[in-house]
Design a protein that fits this description.
Elements: H1 16-39, H2 53-60, E1 71-74, H3 77-82, H4 85-92, E2 97-98, H5 107-115, E3 122-126, H6 139-153, H7 160-175, H8 185-194, E4 203-205, E5 211-213, H9 220-235, H10 242-260, E6 265-270, H11 275-284, H12 291-297, E7 301-304, H13 309-312, H14 324-345
Parallel strand pairs: 1-2, 1-3, 3-6, 6-7
Antiparallel strand pairs: 4-5
Helix pairs in contact: 1-7, 2-6, 4-14, 5-10, 9-11
Length: 346
């Protein structure tokens, strides 16, 4: 991936208004830091980030050109919650780069990596049979790729004050309690005045964009029911014929070939689902007719959780995602499978 280099045009302009703006910003931040220090609530995760275009672009910039050891994770929320980056690194020796985008297809990012002739790393792409459509272009993914290009490939186009603002925003979200998912200034004041205990956030977004979710909280059964209903409604009446599916995977193979022909690797991963979600998928896209057909056709590696007892043994609280505690042994098992499969190929 092309990396920007510093030059004289990238220096901070020595302008009085720039210095005044920086001083004003610093004075505005000071009371917030004092507030957080005084009212930080024990037990509330203070390292939670907001997962947005800026954080994604910053993470994307870590994908180095000509690094054949780089491992990139693509997909949506399942791989963001399901892969513990530190557990993966402990087994493989490589910290993966988390580029999944919640609620979005991984195809735009996979296409982008294929078009970058400098990318020779490994892509682990989370997908379902129905999601193996290389032509899909979700708006969020397209916008975040654009943000990466603007901020890291053409730094001259970004004014200094905008870069400073992004840095300040990331710093605040990293350190301030009231940027956590369940805590804000209003809820903290209410907690102090009424004497009610602060609510602990069950979602933590880390700086590397991995997400930990604690599903041992009140109301998880209702969340599971709602998730299953929503999934059933979204897929009601939607059927992907074998002919359409075959056309998808044939076009997808062009992307795979482009990455692997220059030394990169592509691995398609079917992460666990259960309950109504798995029943819907099996009814509409039976594994033997769809995923197994794809696995026999593609030059990429494929891993389906149903083919490995060590990946399919975990309970999914909402039928779709792993609890952060289970993400560690799941990642450990997956990493060992990847290493074993690589040795078999060699």
């Amino acid at each position: 991936m092309p990396s920007s280099t510093s030059n004289s045009n990238d220096r901070i302009p020595d302008h009085p208004w720039g210095r005044i703006w920086a001083i004003v910003a610093a004075l505005a931040v000071l009371p917030l830091l004092i507030w957080d220090d005084l009212w930080g609530v024990p037990g509330i995760p203070q390292s939670s980030f907001q997962d947005n275009a800026q954080l994604w672009a910053k993470t994307m910039a870590k994908v180095s050109r000509r690094d054949n050891k780089a491992v990139v994770l693509l997909g949506a929320s399942r791989i963001q919650l399901g892969i513990n980056t530190q557990a993966f690194a402990k087994v493989t020796g490589t910290v993966p780069i988390q580029l999944a985008i919640n609620g979005n297809s991984p195809m735009p990012v996979l296409r982008y990596l294929a078009q970058d002739d400098g990318f020779v790393g490994t892509v682990i792409c989370s997908a379902t049979a129905a999601g193996l459509n290389p032509d899909i272009k979700p708006k969020t993914a397209e916008a975040w790729i654009k943000a990466y290009k603007m901020n890291y490939l053409t730094p001259k186009t970004q004014a200094f004050y905008h870069r400073f603002e992004n840095w300040l925003r990331r710093s605040l979200r990293k350190h301030l309690t009231f940027h956590s998912h369940s805590m804000n200034i209003h809820s903290m004041i209410r907690s102090v005045i009424l004497g009610t205990p602060a609510t602990r956030s069950y979602i933590t977004v880390h700086g590397d964009r991995s997400i930990w979710v604690d599903y041992r909280h009140h109301g998880i059964e209702e969340k599971r029911r709602q998730a299953e209903l929503q999934y059933q409604r979204r897929h009601a009446g939607v059927n992907l014929t074998i002919e359409e599916f075959t056309s998808h995977i044939q076009r997808l193979e062009n992307i795979v070939d482009r990455i692997q022909s220059r030394g990169g690797k592509v691995i398609f991963l079917r992460l666990p689902t259960d309950g109504k979600l798995w029943e819907v998928d099996q009814a509409k896209y039976p594994k033997k007719q769809y995923w197994d057909r794809f696995a026999s056709y593609t030059k990429a590696r494929t891993i389906h959780f149903k083919d490995y007892p060590e990946l399919s043994r975990f309970a999914l609280p909402d039928s779709s995602h792993l609890d952060y505690r289970d993400a560690i042994p799941f990642t450990d098992a997956l990493a060992k499978i990847l290493i074993h499969r690589e040795k078999e190929r060699d």
